[in-house]
Amino acid sequence: MTADEAHDAASTTDYPDSVVQISHLASGARAGDIILSASREWDFRARFEPIRHVSSHGALHREHMLVPVLLSRPSARAPRRTTDVMPSALVALGLDIPGGLDGLSFL
Q: What is the 3-state secondary structure (H, E, C) of the chain?
């Protein structure tokens, strides 16, 4: 299954890109044996910081994964991931996409 197929299969769930995200996390050079994603309104840092946080950067929940993108022209394909924004911006500016950059242009 491709990343886009996995995204499409899970797009209506509470974890729309979890299959792709977990596979990227688990295959990383610094990955450990456990991957954590906080429950809503739970903060892993609560006992270390005086400021109460009610969200988590990078959680797998729908509201953390879906980011609105405003475009001034139609896209060639549906934007799926925030990592697609940088290569798309480079294409819009007529610049080359450097090797090793995550994401695919949606333009």
A: CCHHHHHHHHCCCCCCCHHHHHHHHHCCCCCCCCCCCCCCCCCCCCCCCCCCCCCCCCCCCHHHHCCCCCCCCCCCCCCCCHHHHHHHHHHHCCCCCCCCCCCCCCC
Q: What is the pTM of this model?
A: 0.70
Domain ranges of the chain: 1-66, 67-107
pLDDT mean over 6-23: 90
Q: What angle do CA 107, 78, 73 make, to 5 degrees?
A: 45
Mean per-residue pLDDT, 24-44: 83
For 77-97, write each residue's pLDDT tens digit: 888 888 899 999 999 999 999
Cβ 79 vs Cβ 85: under 8 Å: yes
Q: Which two tokens stand for residue 90?
A: 């480079």
